[in-house]
């Protein structure tokens, strides 16, 4: 999907997009790093147990719902667990992180999503475990042409200003 997004940006059909740039051909584009995603395992308290950070084999044994294969976030997750000689076999796959969180709230499922998508867990009886894996880099991408669209240029300026404040 991100391959098509990049191609549409190169053809000026899209002004910009948010991507996981690792492993993608970003030639002909300007890539502005935004942040590193932190992955979290989320489920109800009883489902996840008490282990501070469950092992990948333990996680693989949970009733998982995950993003569908072919989505960049899922592909990166599969690469990460494969490096630990584990394969995740979710019982449900969807293209919606909000849908995954809704399934987790039923109490029957666990998921792995970017931490920024996880609601306040304690008030909902959920447990959120930050996983000790390298998260994916998220970046803004636009065509390598000047001038950039007004909106894209403004967003890039805000990113630069925010970095200056936080450095």
From TrEMBL:
The residue ranges crossing the membrane are none
Which GO biological-process labels does this protein carry? regulation of DNA-templated transcription
Q: Identify the domain of life.
A: Bacteria
Which Pfam families does this UniProt record tie to the protein? LysR_substrate
Q: Which InterPro entries match?
A: HTH-type_LysR_regulators, LysR_subst-bd
- Give the GO cellular component terms, alphabetically: cytosol
LysR substrate-binding domain residues are: 4-162
> Would you tell me the protein name for this molecule?
LysR substrate-binding domain-containing protein
Species of origin: Gordonia iterans
């Amino acid at each position: 999907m991100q391959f098509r997004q990049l191609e549409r940006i190169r053809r000026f059909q899209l002004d910009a997009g948010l991507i996981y740039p690792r492993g993608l051909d970003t030639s002909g584009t300007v890539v502005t790093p935004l942040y590193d995603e932190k992955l979290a395992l989320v489920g109800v308290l009883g489902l996840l147990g008490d282990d501070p950070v469950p092992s990948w084999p333990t996680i693989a044994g949970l009733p998982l719902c995950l993003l569908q294969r072919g989505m960049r976030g899922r592909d990166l997750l599969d690469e990460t667990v494969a490096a630990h000689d584990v394969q995740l076999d979710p019982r449900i796959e969807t293209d919606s992180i909000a849908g995954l969180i809704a399934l987790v709230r039923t109490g029957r499922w666990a998921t792995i999503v970017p931490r920024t998508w996880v609601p306040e867990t304690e008030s909902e009886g959920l447990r959120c475990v930050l996983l000790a894996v390298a998260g994916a880099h998220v970046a803004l991408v636009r065509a390598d042409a000047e001038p950039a669209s007004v909106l894209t240029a403004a967003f890039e300026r805000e990113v630069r200003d925010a970095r200056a404040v936080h450095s």
